[in-house]
Amino acid sequence: AKKQTALDTEAQMKKNYVVSLEEQNLGWWQNEIARMNKLKTGGEKEMYARLLSYISLACYSYSNSAVSQNNAEVAKKILGIYKLADPDNADRPYIEAILYAKLGDDARAVTLLQEAARLGFTDKAKMESEDAFSRIKSTNEFQSILNKIPS
């Protein structure tokens, strides 16, 4: 019964965090994720680690969708939350690079691609075939990033 109560609590927290992706601002998320990361004991620590992974996955999905729909405002917010929840995830700067390439900020897109590669992004084919990078594909910076990614 105690285990089931804990699972029910975690499931409810997941629902609340998904709602909070839309309703809460970045400041709220900074405080909430800092609080989650401070917990260092037992089952609560493990639960919050799982919740952070869940938030990361939700941010991946929501940010991809927002970028695909050219909803820059929502994408920027969700990508900010994604960075807080999972700062070492290489997918976040990659998605953010697509966003900024679509917005015409090629320099920022290149910087984000460099970050993605540094964090371990390895899908060369995906990067080469991304339409948003059409203006920068022939640049030395883009080719340098590709060359740093292992085949």
Q: What does this 3D model show about the protein?
A:
The protein is elongated, with a radius of gyration of 17 Å. It is an all-alpha fold. It starts with a helix and ends with a helix. The protein contains eight helices and no strands. Helix 5 runs antiparallel to helix 6. The longest helix has 27 residues.
Key features?
151 residues; mainly alpha; 8 helices; 0% strand; elongated
Write a short abstract of this structure.
With 151 residues, the chain is mostly helical. 77% of the residues lie in helices and 0% in strands.
User: Outline, from the CA principal axes?
Assistant: elongated
What is the SS-derived class?
mainly alpha
The major pleated sheet works out as: none
Structural Rg: 17 Å
